[in-house]
Amino acid sequence: MKYIIAVIQPDRLNEVLQELYKRDVHLVTVTQVMGHGRQKGQAQVYRGHKEVGLLLRKVKLEIAVNDEYLQLTLEAIAMGARTEQIGDGKVFVLELQDVMRIRTGETGGMAIG
User: Fold this and answer.
1) pTM as predicted
2) CB-CB neighbours of 71 under 10 Å
């Protein structure tokens, strides 16, 4: 099992979600976050508003998948988020030790679905 954390541009969220849904990946948590990478807070125009400062608006996706869905999920995130511009984001993949579905008590891969 893997735990995927992706940090992407906010305006690419719908595209990423559509790509995930095409690949039957539906269990996604989305959080509005702020941060910067190599661009170190360079001013950006976001929805017609110039963002200035050290921290830029980003979206963080958290996805738990069974191993057989890892590559599909990574491809979906890359296809949906890529604009080939600086600041497209990053994807982190971590080992997931265990999962428990609270309602049923299922654990491991069965809890992910």
Assistant:
1) 0.86
2) 11
